[in-house]
Amino acid sequence: MRILDTHLHLVYLDKFSYPWLDGAPALKHQWSVESYFAEAEKLGIETALHMEVDVAEQEMEDETRFVLGNLHPRIGGAIAAARPEHVDFPRHFERLAAMPGVKGIRRILHTQPDELSQGDLFAANLRRLTAHGLSFDLCVRADQLPIGRALVAKCPDVTFVMDHCGVPDVAGQALDPWRDSIRRMAELPNVNAKISGIVAYAKPDWRVADLRPFVEHVIDSFGWDRVVWGSDHPVCTLTANLTRWVEATHQLIAGASEDEKARLLHRNAERLYRVGAGA
Question: What is the rounded CA–CA span in Å between residue 260 and residue 256?
Answer without folding.
Answer: 6
